[in-house]
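Sample A.
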Amino acid sequence: MLSVADVNAGIASFDQAFSDYSTSLEDLGEASWSGPSHTSFMSQANAFVGEFQGTIDKQLGDFSSAVGKYHSYKEKYERRKALESALDEEDHQSEINTLTNEMHTLETEIKGLLSDIASSKSLTANVTAVDVAPVAANLETIIQEANSVTSDKLVQTLIDYAKAIADDPKYGYTPGGYGAGGFDCGGLVWYLLNKVYGLNYNTRQGISPYMLSNQLPKYGFEKYRVGSPVDVNQLKAGDLLVNPNVDHGHVAIYIGNGQILEARWNFDSKSGDGSGQEISVNPYYSRIKDFKYNEVIRLQGWKGASKSA
């Protein structure tokens, strides 16, 4: 990679050589040297110097900006990592979500700067451009690893919260429920997504499997239509299993090892859950006879909210 000193020295040497050449020609007087060929040659030489200077300045400026943004990204990543490891992580979830979105913005900006550098026009006479390919590759690797770790952490956090709710008898099945003692299937999933991922949605509009199927892709989650029923071997922990049927739809959370967690029904006709079945963990294949899940919304690999619906 060219250093700033190398660039400046090269430009100074090149400029001096052409200055000397021009002075020598001028000393010869208005002879044939001072014709159109000479003027054209000098014009091209000056253009070369300007191109050299301008391109290198832009590359160095973009590279400097990318490095600065990377340092900011790294600081946010370390801060988020510390918050995720804290005993009171739940109290910091809002800051974690903010940091995640800020990192997503920085990632986009860094990639844009590196793309601009890589696509800079070639310099005349094969002047060596700043080589940022190794830096770009390293940044890509760091970003990918950070997103992977964060995504897996969020999925596990959601599953842990879901299990805690299922184990707590004060939470039962309530049609249209969204916290305060009861959930239905969609309300439980959205409550967890809001708590862990910080997603915003006007719950007064209703939370249903159909709504989840249509809205979650707008938040950056991948949706797959994989047939009915879904093969358990295709699933990853955290996958939302959806039957978006408007009238009789259902949504459950795949938690791994052939098990799903779901809000099912009010078995004891009371508030809370004395039956232990209303919000519970069940074998996947014991439930597909009731709900032919034909969509999967994947939480793993999420890189940040793309919008608020």
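Sample B, a different protein:
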Amino acid sequence: MKKSISIFGLLTLISFTTFSCTKDEAKGTPKQPEVKKEEQKDKPKEKPEAQATTDALKIRDGIVVGYFSHLIPKDGIIIVPNSVNVISERAFEDCYYLKEIFIPSSVISIGDKAFSGCKNLQKIKLSEGLEFIGRFAFSKQKKNKGVLIDEGHWHTNKLTEVIIPNSVKLIGEEAFAGCKYLEKVQLPNSLRGIEYSVFQECSKLKTINIPKSLNEIKGWAFQETAITKITIPEGIEEVEGLTFYHCSKLKEVNLPKSLKKIGERAFNGTAISKITIPEGVEVIWISAFGDCSKLREINLPKSLKRIGERAFNGTAISKIIIPEGITYIPEETFRACTKLREINLPKSLQSIEKSAFERTAISKITIPDGVEDIDYEAFKNCTNLETIVLPNTLKSVGDLIFIGCKQLHSVRCLAVKPPYTYTPYILGYGAFKGLKADNQQIKLIVPKGSKALYEKASGWNKFSPIVEE
């Protein structure tokens, strides 16, 4: 009996051992040795499998429409599968866990706000095949109780470099705006246009190429970036308003021959020291080069037809030649150009507006025949101004045009009939108020036979002496 039990137990043990072996052992394959914890640490980390990231994505008919935050891999890396053609708008919006994403060549479009608010996004790999990057794709403006805060306040990501593939044709508005860590961008030759504010306030962006394929660059595109040099390609006809506004490190600008217009504040506050405006440019708009405190030299083309207000306000230019065809100098055009000593005005000029030459360093100036009106404060605080010649076509003179001109000692007016002056009863000051401060004597020279008229004319009778020549 004991012997029978022993034989039965032995058979049971052999059977249990046979069915406990692995599938590989059953086939004769030796079992892999167990990797120790120390060896696992040294083993290089592999990228996650596409299948593993697919589980984290909401995909419908080849379109990524969203994500499951609890299924985002711990390392924050997502590989979009080749079955995807479009990443829809807001697909990854506010995805806090996303750190890296790899987008395959099958994707042709990234929708508006697709990665908006992804604060921890450090790297994105875009592939050939991508044609469109939507508005706010990688940027997001802050809100206060649902209301947008003023421009300049952005939720940002941690992208430092972006390479746009050579298939992209258009980058949408504010696509990378406010990416404050972004330092380098490579744009493709396939690109046709850069929309509004694409790289606005990317404060560390200092390296970017402008491809020759571009047809247009919209306003605010590079506002307040750290770029130091820019060459705008041929074919571009307008540098739109605020395109390079307050790019405080921008020192060199090359403009194309195709250019026709420089928009409002396009280069305002940049560090350029000299610039040549090419022939063909017809308009330099409001404050286009205003507050460029290092700008010492600028050449205006003969094709120029219009200059905007404050176009060169606060620059360091010492000489300016205004071309024929310009009919008026707008208000504050050269205001606070404290080194401007020489001005050549065109025969086509008809009027000089408010504060046009205020606080310049001119010592003498001749206003050409054809000018009919000089607006108020036109030469205010020109402390070096000694003599001025006014034309025989002059009809009116504004308030305080010479106030603060402490060195002024001679005014020659060629008009036979005294030009109309604004009186204290109209604006409360008078055209020549302040000229006799500290017993200042200013000689007025008038045409022969006109002395008596000037001695009776309001404002003009303050000059002493009045002489005919």
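Observation for Sample B: Residues 363-469 form a domain with the Leucine-rich repeat, LRR (right-handed beta-alpha superhelix) fold (CATH 3.80.10.10).
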